[in-house]
């Protein structure tokens, strides 16, 4: 089943001198449910721009974006925000954990926005997600007490806590050394395959890209399959 269908999708940004720069250029792409996709490409080729659109963070686009057959561009901001909170988990390069919140509180955050989760469920659900990434013991620590790899595993737990169907990652191992990055990837790939989550992941690392079933490359806004 097709989860996402992009048809002639383009986006541009206005530069300070008023000129338009095309960041995503007539992209046609089908993303199948439960499959994994990596996106490589040199710096500035439009990878983050593309996944921001796929993640519905930016909708100033031309062309078609259908999610489960629904035209995402027809949704109101509110409907789109709800769809995003219910269905999509995000992991970024810099973990983006909130320093003054404990690990479990960071993981529980999406539950406060997604679906209607009773307050009493927050902690058990967060602990369950932390258990899955092997970090239940660190639930009451603050993020700064954890290593980079551990912080990224917390970010993965946070992305998965609301049972998303799509996981979007932007260079999830970009700040980690080789072996830590590989272990984080192993955790990520195991969990998304167990839960049949669709994965779209930007990476600069060829070996990590190859761990995904489908490999895409971006080049000045255009996407091609490897
Ligand atoms: N808000 C913005 N204003 C101006 N230019 C932008 C903006 N967002 C992106 N760009 C430009 O659009 C192009 C694509 O950027 P994007 O961040 O998508 O690249 P990327 O492939 O993710 O690069 P990297 O590998 O360095 O993260 C770049 O030339 C970038 O400078
Ligand atoms: Mg980027």
TrEMBL record:
Transmembrane feature ranges: none
PROSITE patterns per record: ABC_TRANSPORTER_1, ABC_TRANSPORTER_2
Keywords, sorted A to Z: ATP-binding, Nucleotide-binding, Transport
InterPro entries linked: AAA+_ATPase, ABC_transporter-like_ATP-bd, ABC_transporter-like_CS, ABC_transpr_LolD-like, MacB-like_ATP-bd, P-loop_NTPase
GO molecular function: ATP binding
Origin superkingdom: Bacteria
Residue ranges occupied by any ABC transporter domain in the UniProt entry: 4-226
Protein name, UniProt field: ABC transport system ATP-binding protein
Organism of provenance: Arcanobacterium wilhelmae
């Amino acid at each position: 089943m097709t989860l996402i269908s992009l048809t002639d999708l383009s986006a541009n940004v206005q530069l300070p001198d008023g000129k338009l720069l095309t960041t995503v250029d007539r992209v046609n792409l089908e993303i199948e449910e439960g499959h994994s996709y990596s996106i490589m490409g040199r710096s500035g080729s439009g990878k983050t721009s593309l996944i921001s659109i796929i993640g519905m963070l930016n909708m100033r686009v031309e062309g078609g974006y259908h999610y489960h057959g629904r035209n995402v561009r027809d949704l109101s901001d509110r409907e789109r925000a709800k769809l995003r909170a219910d269905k999509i988990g995000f992991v970024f390069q810099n973990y983006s954990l909130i320093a003054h919140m404990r690990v479990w509180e960071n993981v529980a955050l999406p539950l406060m926005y997604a679906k209607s989760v009773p307050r009493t469920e927050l902690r058990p659900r967060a602990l369950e997600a932390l258990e899955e990434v092997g970090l239940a013991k660190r639930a009451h620590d603050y993020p700064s007490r954890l290593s980079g790899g551990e912080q990224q595993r917390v970010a993965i737990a946070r992305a998965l806590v609301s049972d998303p169907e799509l996981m979007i990652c932007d260079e999830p191992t970009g700040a980690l050394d080789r072996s830590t990055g590989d272990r984080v990837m192993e955790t990520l790939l195991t969990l998304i395959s167990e839960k049949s989550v669709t994965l779209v992941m930007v990476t600069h690392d060829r070996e990590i890209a190859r761990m995904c079933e489908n490999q895409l490359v971006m080049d000045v806004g255009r996407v091609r399959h490897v």
